[in-house]
Design brief:
Layout: E1 6-10, E2 26-30, E3 37-42, E4 45-50, E5 59-67, E6 76-81, E7 95-100, E8 104-108, E9 125-130, E10 141-145, E11 151-156, E12 163-172, E13 182-191, E14 198-206, E15 209-215, E16 224-233, E17 236-243, E18 247-251, E19 262-269, E20 277-278, E21 296-300, E22 303-309, E23 322-327, E24 330-334, E25 340-346, E26 356-363, E27 375-380, E28 387-388, E29 393-396, E30 402-405, E31 410-411, E32 419-425, E33 431-432, E34 438-439, E35 444-449, E36 453-456, E37 464-472, E38 477-479, E39 483-486, E40 494-503, E41 506-516, E42 519-520, E43 525-533, E44 536-545, E45 549-550, E46 561-571, E47 574-577, E48 585-588, E49 600-603, E50 613-617, E51 627-633, E52 641-642, E53 647-651, E54 660-667, E55 671-678
Length: 683
Amino acid sequence: FEPGQEKLIDLLKLTDYPYDDVDELVYSVLEPLPVGFTYSLSGSLLTLTADPNAVKGTLTTMQLAVRDDLSEGRPGRIELRVVPSTRPLAQPAADSVITKRGESTPIDVLENDEATNPFPGEPLRVVDIRGIDGGSLPAGVTVTPSADNSTLTATISSTAQPGDVTLQYQVEDATGDADRRVWGSVTISIQDRPDPVDNLQPTAFADRSVSLRWNPAQFNNSPITGYRVVTTSGGSTIDTTVCTGTTCTLATPGNGPANAVRYTVFAVNAIGESDPVTLADPVWSDIVPAAPTGLSAEPLDQGLTVIWDEVPTPSGGSAVSGYVVTVGGVGVTSSCASATCSVNITDGSIANGVPVTFSVSARNGAYGPLASWNASSGQATPAGPPIATASPLASATGDTSISLDWSAAFNSNGRPITEYTAAAYTGAPPSCAPDGTITSNGATVIATGAATSTAFSGLNPNAEYQFVVIAFNGQGCTVGPSVVARTAPSVITALTVVGPSPNGAAFDFVVTGGSMGGTPITSDFTVIYRLSGGSVQGGESGPVSLGSALTANGTQYGQTISVEARACRTWDSTPVCQTTWSAPFLLGVPVDPRLLTDPTFTQLDPDDPRNDGTFAWLGLPVGDYEAISVACGTGPGGTFIPATDPGTCDVTANPAQTPFLTIRVTANGGQTYDITYNGFDYD
């Protein structure tokens, strides 16, 4: 028999009875009764039922008696053996229970297992539980079984972490057969209302709406079913919205700061609502003004003038209150009360001559941290008035003209220079207005356009002038530093000389004055000269000051010569000279009375104390002289006689006297020019 199994036995089939009268047979059960079985006997039909908890493998017997109407028969015996049940095993259904933190919940683990009980009407039993010891349970969770283990009581502290705790329980059916025991599970879901949301912040606004976002709340083992957002204004609730996710767009009562609201968010799950989280600051919706039109810019020195059309207030939005204008990263806030607006922006960080970006953006009361302002932008090049970097270069090109060059004298400062004006003056300098208008103040001015050089003519000779250059580039007018230049003296028209006069051993003409037209040559001037005579053209010499000799070339002595001259005047240690030679002026004959070779003097008797002796020479002075004569004696001069070449001359001199030889040249209409030789120098 299997536990709980019932069998019907017809005892007649087990009885040996030789008669046909079987209806007389009566059966009965004898003591002791079988263990673990129940029975019922009806006539010859015996019904045996093994107890559900009959232990498999056990063996018992049932004694039966039989009699007929006349006598007792011989008793019989039936052996009853318990074998393992073949009924399906119990299949415990998984149990689950939701328990909120801070509460206790009983769990009847067998309540949902009867459907699979192989022995209906016979209760299942819990014989073992796994996982209720302290080491297997999370902190703050305790599970207590009832006396029969069929009920577990889960107690959850308020500090326990939300989550699922799974236990196992072992179920035994009515057979009590350990081999038929099965395990079931129970899950304790520790849940709570959500934690508050985190990082609540506005993300955008539009016309009468604001969008929010937040980080998902900790759902505490109970899924978030939504978020309740409460809108308040002035402390009063004006709207409540249920949002399904962590982003939500919400209506506002109107646009602009006057309609600012606060938002409070509750996370919701099956347990309840989280604590509220409210935006720290009010927020509001609005409409951002359009980008400005009519944008342009004009250059300034290290900046720009930015120009735009007034931006109208957006329909339904707050009023335009101002503009943010930037140039090259430098920004200002500007207001505007006219149809056309402008602002000047300059800064030392803005370089002239380099294109920079400028922009204009209108502002109203839109929520600043989220506003994406519309802007218009462009590019322009800052520029300032030209910058003078050096003085011009002035060079006298004649006695009435001076050239001026300023190719390296200005920096355009961001905008090409379109007009240069050069000026020469001796009194007040010229000036210029920002628009380029020149006031000469009596100066001679020359407009050169973009050219960087010019020449001044018609100036006074021998005069000092100051020169400046004025540059204009449309951004302003700059007067550069001045430079001083002088014109040369005029061409010499008359020259005064004397001589020839002694000039070392020779006799040259000496310049003593003259004139340059109506201007006399005074000690303020020097003279550059060149001499010419006969077939000999002398080189340029000088400059020499008045009273200086016009020294002839050696081959010019003894020839009739003329002189050409140029006057110079020195200003601040720099001579300024006329470049044109004067007409030749006839001078006469310069004289060099020296013998071509030195004479010799021979004493008649070297042992005689007297100084008597003879001069001898070879080579008389060369030149077209009127006469050459000699004289010998005890002093310079004496009685002259015509000279011969070669020649000698005797001198009678006592011991105290010195012998002399004098050479005399006659030229320039009978003028005489002497040179004397001391005999002791040539003995």
